[in-house]
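Figure S4 source data
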Amino acid sequence: MSVRSDDLKSKVVQAPWYKELSKYEKADSRRALWQVLNSFVPYIGLWVTMIWVVRSGASLWFLCPLVLIAAGLVVRVFIIQHDCGHGSFLPSHRANRLLGTLCGILTFTPFDDWKHEHAAHHASAQDLERRGVGDIPTMTTQEYESASQGKRIYYRFFRNPFFLFGIGPFVQFVIVQRFAHKRAGQREHQSVLVTNIALLGLAALACATIGWRTYLLIQGPIIAVAASLGVWLFYVQHQYDDVYWEHHEHWDPIRAALEGSSYYRLPKILQWFSGNIGLHHIHHLRPRIPNYNLQRCFDEVAELQSPRTLTLSASLRCINLHLWDERERKMVSFRELRA
């Protein structure tokens, strides 16, 4: 089997269409600048509007649609940060790092620390022996059946939608990411420190100017919604029924990219807010392609147009997938396991 995997990888990598993907990896400063402007400027404008709503004494219900739009823009800024982490957003390495650090302050995500973990995710995605780095924890049915009662309860709690897409993302972005990962080096620790100091400074400035109540009423809901949306996007791109998982001995990075990452086909407005990250199979195949080139790549390369596709409605069914069944080679629910 490993020979077949190696043959597949070799065949794809040597294919003319794969080699031609390099042309989509070229960063475009003008498109990047426009994306920065149409993400940051509306976000600042929304903050000004929301401050006025709170301080004018108007009903706080008026904040709801504004918070939702602002959270969508934070997701979009996170995609810019994500591309900077891959060194693909701007031509300059230094510019990518500077912009990524600024984006990280807005998204509560230390740039270098997250970049380090995300690189590990790309190097090990869908590898059963290398789970737990930058991914959603996933147990196999055999592991779950042989686990202790306490571990089962913990896993079921973690995979509960109310925690996975509600409490969990908020805790992850607001609390957990204030500390460096265990494998972090000096640069990663510095990144966390710089981000935390910047966030503390911004919070202090906000409290001194608009007041702590106004700041919390706006920043709290925005980061909570944005974190949940971000985790949801990441989840559905790797947690669908016939997703690819394999043991390290037979793991194939090409199959992991094309079969272990979905094409999340969203309405155009949602695709804009999510920075084309739904074209995730292309991103995992060639991470150096910036988000603003992904759609053109998909449209022009026929070999990339038949991935596992998830629509918005179909993706909701992924919520009930909890375990990887090695015998059936598919994701299953707790209920299916009992049956």
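Figure S5 source data
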Amino acid sequence: MPAPHNPFKQALKDGKTVFGCWLGLADTFSAELMGTAGFDWLVIDGEHAPNDLRSILAQLQVLEASPSHPVVRVPIGETYLIKQVLDAGAQTVLVPMVDNADQARQLVRDVTYPPQGDRGVGYAVTRAARFSQITDYGLTANDQICLLVQVESVKGLANLDEILSIDGIDGVFIGPADLAADMGQMGNALHPDVQTAIMGALTKIDASGKAAGILSTHDEMTHDAIKAGARFVAVGADILILSHTAQALASKWQDTLK
């Protein structure tokens, strides 16, 4: 029996545009709810949300019955962290702060079994291999693992061509907030210079044959990103949806007393 098919990776290969949302509440109940909303993919965020391995595992479990594909963002591109989330059942991994080709090459090795890579061979006891029920997991898993790297600095953009030349990377995600900060525009990803850099990078990624990704909660920017070549497009975050909707509801009724 081979490793499970990765529909997200296949969609990117086919050039489809898929829409996603960030999960930052670090809760299984809200993750399960978001899995019913209709998004193609959902990011279980280990970088800026209070997630650990067990909470990531729990969210992978509740999303298994969902049509939304789980993407796990690790806090940093460390071999041991990537090994753990893959063994927990993640098939798509998003790695932040990738600035150069050497980092990217090691990440490819981290998600790939020997002899091509360095991923530890302990799948017989892992959820990824259904606890040894997927007998051919070791021979077939590499083809179903999807590696996405985040380029979100001026240095990363300068090295983008080299990063794009590396086999084994399925997609490159441009991080607007960190890039804006690195360009001296903290909190202002809509600044014209930042937008020019973002759209140029997305176009270059798309032209390379790899999938381009973005997170945008600004509709005009989102449309521009898609036109520039973005194919995995996150359009919101559960925290922002809850926070903004709750604030609007409270304000609506408080205003009736004025």
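The chain has a mean pLDDT of 97. The two ends are 66 Å apart (CA to CA).
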